[in-house]
Amino acid sequence: MFLKTHCLPLFITLISLFSSCFCIYREDPFHIGFRQGHAYHRPRTYHPYFGTFGFSNQRNYYNPNSANLFNYNNEIWSRLDTARAPVTLKVDDFGALANGRDDSEAFKKAWKYACSSSQGAILVVPQNKIYRLKPIDFSGPCKSALVLKIYGTIEATVDHSDYKKNRRQWLYFDNVQNLRVEGEGVINGNGRTWWQKSCKINKALPCQEAPTAVTFNECINLRVAGLQIKNAQQMHLTFQKCVNVQAFNLYVTAPGNSPNTDGIHVTETQNININNCVISTGDDCISIVSGSKNVRATGITCGPGHGISIGSLGARNSAAYVSNVIVNKATLSGTANGVRIKTWQGGSGYAKNIKFQNIVMHNVSNPIIIDQNYCDRQKPCSKQVSAVQVSNVLYQNIRGTSASNVAMKFDCSRSFPCQGIFLQDVALRPQEEDIAEASCSNVRLSYIGNVSPPCSS
């Protein structure tokens, strides 16, 4: 009787646990047996660190359970939606005229009033109107949650003297918690005059900074959704030192020849989910740089542009750290690069625990590339020994066409080889009738399933 009562349930529990562990084991591609490649002379086995994605404990930050990595505190928004009704305001109520003149002061007054509301506020930019703004700071902390609904168009002034105070920012959201910026409106950076004065367009001009169209700095529990952001002076949308971010259903556009117009730039930001975005610009569709951790980009349509990049990292002998990045379900068309990791010589730190999976390439010049010898200078960069360590990178189910003969390129450091680079079910063929190749230097590489083109010995 004792056996039936106590041991049988225990036995069933153990069987269930074993079954669940077995399923997880089978789903993790790093537990599959590898065919060792010949790009490095010594086969090695590396541990599957991808199951360890989680969050660091930071004081005053909400840290979702690591088992549900990108649950960005939707409970907060649910509670706010059912709380007492927030006050609804229009920027027009504070003197915004949308008559082609500067509406900056009206927007500042509207923000100050909304931010000071203890019951929460919804600030509306009405549709079918164009509001022209100089550089403006939307600063916190605010007394309660705030929603900025943009239905009309916000347009940047074109007088460069308006940006003398800070040439690097236009719309700047700083230190705000529980903020939503959403709507079906347009944010237009009017960047053409800035592009014409770029040293990348006119080599005779000195290189100078240009404003980022929209910056979120040190914001916590942030949602940005539904907007069209176009023709930024330089970068379009930057998340800087933010925690718990959702960015989805965004349409980011600029001409393919516009310089340094990254679509979405992530720096020193943790727990960010970028979902269902269409990005076509003159630089990286998404760029992820130092200090960023727990980044997921899903359902991204990219092109034209420079692809999806981690880096550049380690410039000017700096330390850089990026980890726990997943890029899933992306389509890249006509881009200069596909999925890229780029680091400067002389840097230190790491880029690790990275997955690129379920990606389609159409006529992409460098579909898969790791470049530890990145150099974005007119003069050649000097040779240096130290480098940012690149490790534990998975390329899984990546297919399509390459515009160049080299479909995969791993140009890694001799002193700090790329470690734990896994290719699973990769099929890249040339756009034309040429033969696609793989170029592999100083990389510890493993294959899973069918990989084409493979690295030569």
Précis, in short:
The protein has 457 residues and is mainly beta.
The named CATH superfamily of the largest domain? Single-stranded right-handed beta-helix, Pectin lyase-like
Cα radius of gyration in angstroms: 24 Å
In the predicted model, the low-confidence regions spanning at least 5 consecutive residues are 1-70
The total domain count is 2
- What is the mean pLDDT? 86
Q: Report how far apart the termini are.
A: 66 Å
Please report which band the strand proportion falls in: under 5%, 5-15%, 15-25%, 25-35%, 35-45% or over 45%. Answer: 35-45%
- Major sheet details: 19 strands, mixed
The helix count comes to 4
Class of the largest domain, according to the CATH hierarchy?
Mainly Beta
Beta-strand segment tally: 30
| CATH fold category name of the largest domain | Pectate Lyase C-like
Known CATH architecture of the largest domain: 3 Solenoid
Structural class: mainly beta
Helix content: 10-25%
Shape: elongated
Question: How would you sum up this structure, described in words?
Answer:
It is a single chain. Helices cover 11% and strands 44% of the residues. It is built from four helices and 30 strands. It has a 19-stranded mixed sheet that branches. Mean pLDDT is 86; it is low at 1-70. It is found in: Secreted, Cell wall.
